[in-house]
Amino acid sequence: MSEQKTVAVLGASRDRSKFGNKSVRAHASNGYAVYPINPKADEIEGHTAYKSLDDLPIESIDRVTVYLPPAVLIGELEAIGRKRPTEIFLNPGCESSEVLAKAKELDLPVIQACSIIDVGAHPANL
Question: What is the pTM of this model?
Fold first, then answer.
């Protein structure tokens, strides 16, 4: 049996109508160990929330899925890189030319797509 895949949801939300919450639920229901990142939450959907990626209790992560505006995300790219993710999903609305240029400079494995759809769920059904 393979090891459980891990995902950090950067911009996770306690608000069930927000994509940052739907992503937590979609990944969890598809077998991921979920690490919500939200500096103002202690728990999201039953998962311990962390203030930052650097606070995660694991050294590396399989996937980082991002729900942050570009102006905030740009400052998080180096922290994302430190976790050595296999893939980074920049969900619609969080990418910008500046973010993409910095991610390329850092050699980050960026995918511009909806990670909820990637795991086989649909945001409208969550």
Answer: 0.96
